[in-house]
Amino acid sequence: MKKALFIMAVAVLLLSSCSSVPITGRSQLNLVSDSEVLQSSLAAYTSFMQTATLSTQQVQSAQVTRVGQRIAAATEAYLKANGMESEVKNFAWEFNLVKSDEVNAWCMPGGKIVVYEGIMKLVNSDDELAVVVGHEVAHAVAKHSNERLSQQKMAQVGAVVVGAATQGKSYQTQQIAQQIYGLGAQYGVMQPFSRKHESEADYMGLILMTIAGYNPDVAVTFWQKMQAQSSSNIPEFMSSHPSHETRISDIQKYLPEVKKKYATVAAPATNTTTAKTTTKKTSTTKKTTKKK
To answer: Which residue numbers are catalytic?
Structure first.
């Protein structure tokens, strides 16, 4: 009886904790609040910037700021035009180029964008940088961090359910059941959802960069360059990212629709009121996010 009540409670929780991803409309699980995620991400971002070294490449730093501001303006314009103006307050944009050979970039929930010098070696234009920034901003807009945390919470609940189901069985049976569940959660749920997030960010990023006035066609050649420099041999089903072949193929499929629907949308002015560029360590960074 207790097991049935527990499962029913979980089902009610799942049904009451669904939201939709902007642009794609995909239903997603959301068990954590925006304020919780924003506070945690701001703390992580501030800690990172206190130890990071900002790039001295002034031309590239200016490029990151320029492209970042246009993508940010396009993002806010889309949200406002589609009845999601309340989401805009979650973003306090910052744009940084940091000194590192790592081929990487990220955007924290809340709009804190960091690009590494290493990836700039593959960037030959603002359009190509917009591929990178648009993809990372899309993760924040889609609240993939919220969803990921929610999935982890549900995985923990699932482990409790497995434990309850094997209660009274031998210790060996319980251990085997938990191991099987762990592998299933990792490769059957958590990893595929992460790949789904990456593919969704690719699609949404193409739209955001197109609205911002950049050429989305360059996404194909940019990811081909990423593929050429990659040394990963991890099978796709064990990876948190789609293979380069899958990613490029999907982008090629997305492009006709994206250009048809969004290429005629006027690029917004880069006048986001919260945007700024970090020029020194963020020990003086003020928290600008608000609780919902």
So the answer is: 136
